[in-house]
């Protein structure tokens, strides 16, 4: 029986493909003549079965002229400069933090009275956390192992009588894994060494059974989870969608579910993997674990402070900058302090028909509820937001949603 399980991470030239897709979107948006050559070059690149290492080598493919080849070489140079810059920034930041810590300690010494005044426990913990967060971690080739992290909620079903088979399946497939509480996603991968350092590989998986997907769409969790995944700093996002029996009595039509994950794929650049059952899902994770272990075995890893790290060419890049697990955990925690803009965004996502792209477009123009309310009051126009461009296609928000927001903030009930 043919399976729908797929491992789609073996494109020979993923980075070049990503650049061409971005340039093509820009050319189409501005109706430039170059879009035709770019589309031709992208199609040729996708069908070429071997890795390419420079823009000059791309010249053998249809659609790659001198200008396009030079653009690719320029992007490669930028990537190399960025890697060097990130290491330098991390080292400079670490030195700066060490300087601040010494100054704080020196100030404490100067302010001593007859009775010595020491740092409180909380102050010591904050200083230690800051030092640990900024400490540069280096993992030379061959000095680390890769393991799969499983969110603790994945190890037992909501019904206590029905134990979830996640862990037993992974054990039977001989996948090195560990169960922890994750603040974002259900599965991710760590590179860890003998000193206890942990760096997060740039892939994260959210597992959804069909009935749970339908439920999350109805109550708004689906939009919130997509947003949190996009904000976590891991570039390769995967939705693992698992069939639920015959997919009957889900609470939403199957067409609605397909539309939801298609939107996630197109608008949020989330890879969609659909499997037939729970075992097939774990088999996919097993295969992906083996692939990532092989892919990173030849790499040198180092820690970075910035999010959206891990964008690298798996063929050319020998050094890869990754987030520390502790940083990811703390930054993605639901209990982390939210800005007014983030709270406003979450509030908008609870309203019917307001997708993440539409909510982001509103918050980009009006970062707080107060600013939006003031704009409505000043104009007295319920259609104020109707023409705001949303998403990659810049479609207008529309009068209906604009009036909905106006009534939400100005109705008397």
If you had to describe this structure to a student in words, what would you say it looks like?
The protein has 413 residues and is of the alpha/beta class. It is 50% helix and 14% strand. The protein contains 15 helices and 11 strands. The strands form 3 sheets. The chain has a 6-stranded mixed β-sheet, with helices on both faces. Helix 1 packs antiparallel against helix 2 and helix 4 runs antiparallel to helix 5. The longest helix is centred in the first third of the chain and has 45 residues. The radius of gyration is 25 Å and the shape is globular.
Question: What do the pLDDT scores average to?
Answer: 82
Cα end-to-end separation: 57 Å
What coarse outline follows from CA principal-axis ratios? globular
Percent strand equals: 5-15%
Taken in chain order, the helices and strands follow as: HHHHHEEHEEEHHEHEHEEHHHHEEH
Strand order of the largest sheet: 3-2-4-5-6-7
Spans of at least 5 consecutive residues with low confidence: 1-9, 159-163
Outline the biggest β-sheet. Answer: 6 strands, mixed
Work out the number of β strands: 11
How many H/I helices?
15
Radius of gyration: 25 Å
The assigned structural class equals alpha/beta
Helix content: 40-55%
